[in-house]
Amino acid sequence: MDTSSDRGRRAAPPPPPRLRGRLFAGSVVALLCLAGACLIDRTFGVARTYGATGTSLLTLGACLLAMTGLTACIGLGRWQKIHQLAARYRNIHGWVGITTGSLLAMGFLAGTFTLFAAPLQQWSTPPLPPQDARFSAISLTEIPALIGQLPATASTHYRLTLTSPSTARISIPTEPEIPLGVPSPSIIISQPAPHTLHFYRLTPSPVPNFIGGLHRRLGLPLPERWVMPFVGTLCLFYGLALLSGVILLLPGIWRSLMTVRLQGHARRLWLDLHSLLGLCTLPFQLVIALTTALFAFFPLLSVFFGAPASMKPAAGMMAMEQYPTALLSPAAALLQLRNLSPSFHPLTLEYVSGPHGGDNLAERISLQAPLYNANGSCSLPMSEQPYLLAVGTDPFNALIGRDRGSVLMDPQTGTILDSQNLPGQQSPARHFLTWCLALHFGSFGGEFVHWLYAALGLCGVGFFHTANKLWLNTHRLKITGQARPADTPATLWLGRLSEGSLLGCLLGLCSIIALSPLMSHLHSVNKDMMNGTGMPSSSMPAMTQSCQQVRLTYYGCLAFSMVAYCLLSRRLCRSMMTGLSAAALSTAVIVVTLRHSATQDTSSLILTAVFSIAALCLWRGAFRNACTRA
Amino acid sequence: MLGMGTEPVFFWGGLMMGAIWAVLLWLQLPGQTPRPERLSRQVGIAGLFLSGGLAWMLWAPVFGPVGAFFCLGGWGMALLCFMPVIWAVLSSSQTPHTS
Predict the structure, then answer these.
(1) How many domains does chain B have?
(2) Less Cβ crowding at N or C end of chain B, within 10 Å?
(3) What residue ranges are annotated as transmembrane (chain A) (predicted)?
(4) Is residue B23 part of a domain?
(5) What is the ipTM, given to two decimal places?
């Protein structure tokens, strides 16, 4: 149909052999940087001396060096003018963008939802019956007496969720909590009258945890331990694309940086938007690339690091043959915390006075969660050690976790066992590491920063989408006599798959959000608890089954979208996917509103409003696409 | 909301000063940005430093000094992403071309 003589290729030429050599050299340099971190640790004993904090900072430095080394190697050689240097980066920037853009866009979209994991869980949870809801918040002074009324198996491990400065809700975890694992059910207690207790089993929704996993795996349906080396490598190339993008901007595009040309050729619009989003969010994107590389490489490198520093037993921290009966009252524990760190706002107090599951670095590495609950080499003390874990937030300091910090105390005396994750009470090295992680999670500045990060995350999705659009527009063939450029097989299929995967991810996320309220259950277990049979039997197999259903729904939606994009027209698919996403979100809002949990607290109310607005926007997009088609 | 509830005046003041800082920064950047005739470059740059400093000072009691710095950076980044797009839509009489 068309020959090479009658078409003008506007696409960039294929990578020259020199570029492959430079890329190889860059990869070797990056590998050497990471190997160097292991060597430094072995030589100077960083892990032995400074524990997980030292090795994390060492890995972070190695990732930064690897990223800059990889970028520098591509530009190796003589150049006289800046555009000659930029020319060396043009090809690699485009190829890295098109190969990683869709995965990163899915990762950013899931990451935006992950920011609201805790409110989403609360939003999905059905409220207690009205006759018990009023009595679930119990005065702190009454709690010790109430705990005495519980069956012996329940009184050794309980959690107090503070609802006001003087009241708390009591819950009993039925399974040990695994960081980033399947959420465990708990028993909630209410006291409608003195000496009368009502028990409810709360089964949480697995959806927020699943979205978190999706974010960490960039949407790939593989176990995390397999995906992590790939994610780390991808992040180094993502850093290369960011830095090379800045070099590409230097020669001339800088002059029209803040220009968005809506008229004219589509390619120019995508270029304007891509440059604008890329340069304006560059610090955010660099932080995300670097910290994700740290999360991905830390478990791999820690295998080669020396033995980590063992958790030194603090005063009073020792294995106890007899577990304490008299525990520090919640009011006294809160007073002690206030004296220790006035800006720390405790959210939960977890009392563990019996044998419990401990953890260690190896276990958390296998869960890909070495830093999320990092407390040196162990996040919890040895299994014989009773403890009181206070978890909370701090508006003035960064938090090491996704949205909270913690402190470990002795439940009898209130002696501090471990305070390295207590905001504002950390060593300078730990404080620096906390800020690095907080800049990834947005765990500083409270809810304002969460919403700011949501906006920046959506800008990131737009950044990768415009990168894909730009690449596709650049690589289409311009045929003489035809107004619109023609697709090559590569641009046709890459265009369909990139848009199909992004909208499929959106549809999948909206669908599992619609499922979320249906997967959270609350039912009375008074008989089990009062008959002396103790804690109800484990429901973890049911939780695992729920997780499988969520996984199946998400990947089913993703596959449906990609197949539809391969078979049907793009406009029809766009309209269909946005319409289905809108329908899923609308269903979720209706279900939650009917269950009266849409307005049970401020965060649920805000989430309902946001989902309603998002559903309206999606409906508008779907109808607009449908009308354009008609 | 965390931070906002304790010091609402400082929070909203900082938010407004941060927005002014971002607008002044946008006006100084190259490309298709509005060029007010009465605002000279020197005054613009002076206003940029002044509004940035004020925003940081107002937010420091709410988020802490380091937190205020990063909040201001994030707020500026978000506004700089949206303002040129909104400006392009407002200043254009035709519908966007998005093939």
Answers:
(1) 1
(2) C
(3) 21-44, 50-74, 95-118, 226-254, 275-301, 448-467, 502-520, 552-568, 580-598, 604-623
(4) yes
(5) 0.90
